[in-house]
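Posting for a labmate who doesn't have an account.
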Amino acid sequence: MERTWNNKAWFLVLPVLVLVAFSAVIPLMTVVNYSVQDTFGNNEFFWAGTDWFMETLHSDRFWEALQRNLLFSFIILALQIPLGIFIALNMPKKGIGVPVCLVLMALPLLIPWNVVGTIWQVFGRVDIGLLGHTLEAIGLDYNYVRDPLDAWVTIIIMDVWHWTSLVVLLCYAGLASIPDAYYQAAKIDGASRWSVFRYIQLPKMKRVLLIAVLLRFMDSFMIYTEPFVVTGGGPGNSTTFLSIDLVKMAVGQFDLGAAAAMSIIYFLIILLLSWVFYTVMTSSDAAN
């Protein structure tokens, strides 16, 4: 009997494809178009080839911003992943404490990014902010507007406060999916708490940890709103990440060709590093 295929279901996917084309593909093609051309106004464009890409790759400004991005993402992952696991392990598993803790964990995630930046901008001010005024009162010289180290510490603490909850919720979901039989067997064998974590909980959380690492890396590497609101990329260029530098180049300097080339390189770096993270973590999972 000959098998027949019904392709009418593709019409159900057509609205999604149209939406993706308008929201992703068409803007991407526009950026690619700007990245290989130059303009002197009056909507007249001239072919530039790979000149903008070569200029970006030979720019110290680009590499310095990239180094700041990589350092920030490394610090964020090093802090938030262990902290998220620790909090998830110590959250209640039964009773009224479960919904209370879950709601409290979700609250920072509900705050818009620009509001988070505004909160911490005011919170860290020496004259009216609770954090800045308290640190000055106890004798600590804290000023995120003047000191690059203070600016970095403020942005890192702000991001940890804002996004650690995501790691906590993912890890808690992974822990909640572990059957009680594993814990009962470990109790019979007299396993210590560390052994339970090492051989039961951590392996069962690997999948959600992979998602947490990928999400937090991509979010931290693309961070823009919070540091821009708090420090504006300063003091100097100490907190000028690639995203902030890109907006300054495109909007402030109106250098569309260089900004388009930089955005494509930025996108490819994120894609490559995310693929490396995914490959390394899935290969280690398969080996076990």
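Reply:
Got it, the structure tokens are right above this. The longest strand covers residues 37-39.
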